[in-house]
Amino acid sequence: MITHIQGRLVEKNPTEVVIDCNGVGYWVNISLNTFSQIGNEENVKLFTHLLVREDSHTLYGFKQRSEREMFRLLISVSGVGASTARTMLSSLAPAEIRDAIVAEDVATIQSVKGIGGKTAQRVILDLRDKVLKIYDLDEIPVKASNTNKDEALSALEVLGFNKKQSEKVVDKILKDTPEAAVEDIIKGALKNL
To answer: Range of 34's domain?
Structure first.
């Protein structure tokens, strides 16, 4: 019913925002992913999903269409509600969730707080074919075979850095320069950790 909202950002918290749209304040639930993308914008546009229940109408907002699409896919899985889907999108980027589903990586999905083994398997089972079709993927991404990434991550772990934080920073570096040498990845990560 409401596909997007555009207006002045009145309040901003890690879990929700209030957007003033022509004098009406809309309370919109967001993920940490969207929270970080909003930054310090005064005017904001969020793609929305209106969840209608017997006792409430709840609006969820996303900075990117791809995140909203992933949210809709996740809530279509039996046992995954809106709050669980939002937690998943706060813990992992939409592309990470997509890649984990395609690669049948139960551990990555299970790493999200509140997701057990059975739920992670159900997410993969229910969504794998849909994700392959929607994103027009023919095969599993070649993410797991990046030895430079693995070497850099193990070096950062030995240096005492948190594995999850390190992985996010390293993924960002590899996104910008996919052919980076191990030393360059580590140097870049040390600057950003």
So the answer is: 4-62
